Hints:
The complex is a heterodimer.
Chain A: H1 4-13, E1 18-22, E2 28-29, E3 44-48, E4 52-61, E5 70-77, E6 82-85, E7 100-108, E8 111-118
Antiparallel strand pairs in A: 1-2, 1-3, 4-5, 4-7, 5-6, 7-8
Chain B: E1 12-23, H1 30-45, E2 54-57, H2 65-73, E3 79-81, H3 89-103, E4 108-115, H4 143-157, H5 161-175, H6 189-194, E5 197-199, E6 202-203, E7 212-221, H7 222-225, E8 233-242, H8 258-269, E9 278-281, H9 287-295, H10 304-308, E10 320-321, H11 326-329, H12 337-349, E11 362-369, E12 374-381
Parallel strand pairs in B: 2-3, 2-4, 9-10, 9-11
Antiparallel strand pairs in B: 1-7, 1-8, 4-7, 5-6, 8-12, 11-12
Amino acid sequence: MIQPETEWRAHLADGRFMVQRRRSSGSHVFYPRVAEPGTGTEDLEWVEASGEGIVHAVTVVRKKDPADSYNVVLVDLAEGPRLMSKVDGVAPDEVTIGMPVRARILLEGGEPLLVFEPA
Amino acid sequence: MTMANGFPRARTAIVGAATFGIGRCPGVSAVDMAAKASLLALADAGLSLSQVDALYTSAPYEALGGLELAEYLGITPRVTDCNRTGGSAFEVYVQQAALALEAGLIDCALIAYGSNPASNPPPGVGMTRQSPWEAAYRPLAPISSYALAASRHMHLYGTTRDQLAEVAVAARQWAQLNPEAAVRDPLTVEDVLKARMVSDPLTARDCCLFNDGAAAVVMVRAERARDCAKAPIYVLGAAHAVTHREISSMPDLTVTGAALTGPQAFAQAAVTPAEIDVVMLYDAFTITPILFLEDLGFCPKGEGGRFVSGGGIAPGGALAVNTNGGGLSCVHPGMYGLFLLVEATRQLRGEAGARQVKDAKLGLAHGNGGVLSSQATVVLGTGDAI
Lengths: 119, 386
């Protein structure tokens, strides 16, 4: 059977941000699972995400040294699903709801990490 | 036997209620505290430990807490439940106990909780794991999740940080009327705004306490309740909904499962929000009562911030909300849901002293678990109300 998280991370390590798509309806699913939530439909296939998204909600985690503060966002993907990420390459206070963003894969501590940057 | 919308309205009642060790409770374990609260609640009801045949408890650091407390108390319950719906667990227990009592499966339900993380810090490993889809972005658990919901509410409805702060200030003003509340010094909107920002838009004063406390309630069928020591507080409705686990999967960040459980519980109880005298809402963070006031129907969606402004939920305000001082100023030992039920019971009995809501006949306790994930609403009433 499909190994949702393992396969997703393998794709990410190969430089591809994948989401799942139902063959029958074309609707998209994230995070990856063995079946579509709500319907239980199992006709899911991997497709590469467009990478386009919009910031849906944002918070800044504040640290003693302001330079260490960082943003945490929820992003609505153009394909529909919402996920948690961060917006990279911009001061945390400059991330706003409604901001168009584009996915990018970083290496952080040797591990691939899906982030977004202003589009 | 009549069932209104799937619930045995007023067929069961809370007959015992107690708190113990609120604030600091050093030198003992969580189960010591739960046991002590249990005995106090049974004494309050005029019932004995040997009469308890159902046990509902969620221990802070022991997944098998129901088994632990049964052993500790030396009872052999016919029903033991230690559910994992977070802080809402205790409102869910009221629902489950009412159904089991009505069915005749049990005769006397004890719902108990104790936790002292302030005095007896927990071992490093908690009972939840971080989501593999969120952990890498280092959200502070759980505050960043609530902060994200707050950011969305502010964006859509113009809710302000001042309005969030009003929730904390109202809680503090109620706490000042409650000798049992842990934190009672004065608090202003400015104090909340100037406190250390933790996860925008929530400061340290937008967050609930993390202190010690225990509570327990006892439930029996209505016909037996009339023979107990105190006036029964009848369970009129109880509804539960789970919408997600992690904040990234919440269907709508500004609409909680309370929008489902509120209408269901009110229909079971055959009352409307306007009739409720005492409203106990789980206030893990200042955004949560605002969301629940809207979702439960006390004000329209998006109006929660304006509803709490100008002391709207403070003593003397339009609606009596969180009269014990809430999780923000009275007690929050990890899971707060049972304290909501105890305070609603005390108010409906007329035992609330300086903070007593006059002629209170109908009360609501709304529990929250996870990150706005699990919502459970209980409607309670006095004999006059049914």
